[in-house]
Amino acid sequence: MSDIRSFEAQTAPADWFALLKPRVMTLVVFTAFVGLLVAPVGVNPVIGFASILFIALGGGASGALNMWWDADIDAIMKRTQSRPIPSGRIAPRDAMWFGLVLAAVSVVMLGLTANWFAGAFLAFTIFFYVVIYSMWLKRLTPQNIVIGGAAGAFPPMIGWAVATGGVSVESVLMFALIFMWTPPHFWALALFMKSDYRDAGVPMLTVTHGRRATRAHVLIYALLLAPVAIGAGFTSIGGPIYLAVAVLSNAVFIAGCWRIWRRDEPVAEVDGYRVEKRVFAFSLLYLAAHFGAFLAEAALRPFGYGGW
Question: Subunit details for this protein (predicted)?
């Protein structure tokens, strides 16, 4: 980490908050919240709120530990150079201890608040993201985001476990939806990040196999994602509303990924990767729409809406 600048700037509370990766935490909180609310077992609102808070802290702990470990490559990549550690606002050791303390607190408190299965699941998720993905897979294999993406797919299962104390087909399908969505979402980003990953020595698929192969992988995963997403509509957490959203969203997403696959690199360079950027932006809406539809199905049932 010798490339990291000297730590002269005064640390502000916003810098510690930035370590938590708040945008990623938003996804963690939302999907865990949906997993909690669509579960067949009701949860006391106070316990539910506290549980989501501790899941959010666990997600933030993962983000802080990831930033600590990746500080050397964050200092190289343009997208991450302004983060608190490479910009010199927080020392790496302080970020490490901050993440470890948050991880311990979040796991113990979730276990005490909800149940120890949910607490253990959160602990495993933090371990998976920090050790399996960040420390091992990210710099080892172009499949890093495929396997490591499981860490971001666990939150709805944790939310479900808070309510039920276990796992079910429905929670596994919510996991599978995020797991299959992550590669095309992230590779669309990698396609227009250009040389960042190459400069940092990260074996992203765009670096090891080229953009042409990456474009094909984006389309393949979008096609594999569609039956998973649509299939969830025929379970107890699905229904006509969710199914309509899933069919429309997957049709639009596949069409966008098809356009990515059909492009050639000179054209992509000339027009500034507009298609890739649009697909990446839509992928965020895609996931929000699916989990929002799960939530709508659950919210309407007390008013006589029967789903399937």
Answer: Interacts with CtaA.
pTM: 0.92
Give pLDDT tens digits for 5-20.
444 446 788 999 999 9
Domain boundaries, the chain: 1-167, 169-308
Query: d(Cα 175, Cα 223) in Å, to the nearest integer?
Result: 17
What topology does CATH give the domain 1-167? Tetracycline Repressor; domain 2 (1.10.357)
Q: What is the tens place of the pLDDT at every residue in 236-291? A: 999 999 999 999 999 999 999 999 999 877 777 767 788 999 999 999 999 999 99
